Amino acid sequence: MKNSLLDFIYPQNIACIICDKPIKLTNTYSICKDCFKELHFLKDACMKCGKPIINHNLEYEDISNCSYCRQRTFYFDRAISCIEYNQTSKKMILDFKYKNKTYFCRYVAQIMSEKMELENITADYLLFVPLHKKRLRKRGFNQAEKIAQDLSDITGIPTLNCIFRKKNTKRLYNLNRLERQQEVKNSFIIKDNDNLLKNKNVILVDDIFTTGSTSNEISKMLKLIPVNKIIVLALLTRTNDPYVSFEENN
């Protein structure tokens, strides 16, 4: 009944979810052809941090260990993103997060599930990056949680709500990498009273992978349990370390 009501309010494949232009019923992800052309689905990406590989000369850029992650210590085993960040994909996320278009999450989850199938990855549990309770009350929902729930419906992998943000961190989009690391340090706790996570493989879901500071801090906590394998799964990432106008985990 709930899904039927949602489909009535936001019927699929009538208008593009990005630009609102009329579309055909057969359009993939309810996106028009013009917007779809602007979405750069990632194919060549680092096998560790998931960021796009621009230099294809492997003498200088190895897709198993790119120049970006060679300079960093990551506690997760691998990060995978689906689409490169640009103005079109940015609008998709900002409308989702700040214009209350929560129905977007089912399309995001569909894209992620297809990426999981393509990369041949699965897990025992889906986890998600939490919001602080103050920010959650203000927004009314956690986008990462909603995506994880829809992804669970598609894949059959159960979702665990076991990560909590104990510190109401600043918005990270205008901070550099070192500032982000310091801001999220010791910001999370893991509650696994039933020892469900011990020696298990998990997928940590988020909307955007920027510097990886947030997901890395959570991964560090998960490894202490210890979790066996951690895959970070995000919709968007891009090549650079952006310090402005690129929101992560807010």
UniProtKB/TrEMBL annotation:
Start and end residues of each Double zinc ribbon domain: 5-69
CDD domains recorded: PRTases_typeI
Top-level lineage group: Bacteria
Pfam families listed in its UniProt record: DZR_2
Protein name from the UniProt record: ComF family protein
